[in-house]
Predict the structure.
Amino acid sequence: MALAAGWGGTGLEPEPPESPELLLRAVNPCIGTVVILYSTGSGGSAALDVFDLDGRHLERLDLDPADDPVQIHAGEGLPAGVYFLRLECGHSTSCETAVVLP
């Protein structure tokens, strides 16, 4: 299949993400407190949600983009287990798993 020069195809190419630098990392494993490193890249309001294995929403933290990148402590005193973290900024989302040891 050949494409004519200067023609991009169907015109339905996906747009690049607004925030390609959205980053979420959890220090694993951890004891009692989940240490989270995050960066939203382009700034803007961000929120971090913590879920357990059953999908229960445990905590929501509204993050200040002025502090970006930053290290935060979420879920202090969590029992041992596996948790899911979701960082949302604008239309971008990043997910991470956190393991808490006893």
Summary: The chain is about 0% helix and 50% strand. Residues 23-101 form a domain with the Immunoglobulin-like fold (CATH 2.60.40.1930).
